[in-house]
Amino acid sequence: MKTGERIKLLREEAGLSQLDLSKLIHINNSVLSRIESGKRPVEDHELKTIADYFNVDADFLIGRKDVQRVDNENKDYIDHTLGWTEEEKQIAEAVIQTLRQLKSQTDKEK
């Protein structure tokens, strides 16, 4: 998946039109359209702005990582390109949370 496709995916997941996102991040709508379609490379400052807006790692946007987001509890969300279903993601998240709780209990006992 290319950078523009990842940006489009995030935008659509957020329920935003190109015009909405372009206004929110102060990028010309035609520039955003060309970035998403792969007709124009994303510049560094635009990449940072978009990554900050969606709270994602810029490495995800450029395809160097398959991890999409890290929230306040440091939970990683698996990128759609890995083919995981929503149910599989929820199961994985539940397993991770259980392991964290067990580790926390073990640390307290020490």
Could you give a quick summary of the protein structure above?
The chain has six helices and two strands, in the order H-H-H-H-H-E-E-H. The protein is mostly helical. A two-stranded antiparallel sheet has the order 1-2.
| Rg over CA atoms | 17 Å
Oligomer: single chain
Query: How many separate helices?
Result: 6
Structural class, by secondary structure, is mainly alpha
Q: Write the H/E string, N to C.
A: HHHHHEEH
What is the terminal-to-terminal distance?
Answer: 45 Å
Low-confidence runs of at least 5 consecutive residues: 72-81
* Biggest pleated-sheet summary: 2 strands, antiparallel
User: Kindly state the mean pLDDT as a whole number?
Assistant: 82
Strand ordering within the main sheet = 1-2
> What is the global morphology?
elongated
What is the number of strand segments? Answer: 2
Helix content: 55-70%
Q: How much of the sequence is in beta strands?
A: 5-15%
Task: Provide an overview of this structure.
The protein has helices at about 5-15, 20-25, 30-35, 45-55, 60, 85-110, and strands at about 65-70, 75-80. The protein has a two-stranded antiparallel ribbon with strand order 1-2. With about 110 residues, the chain is mainly alpha-helical. It is elongated, with a radius of gyration of 17 Å. It has six helices and two strands, in the order αααααββα. Helix 1 packs across helix 3. About 60% of the residues lie in helices and about 5% in strands.
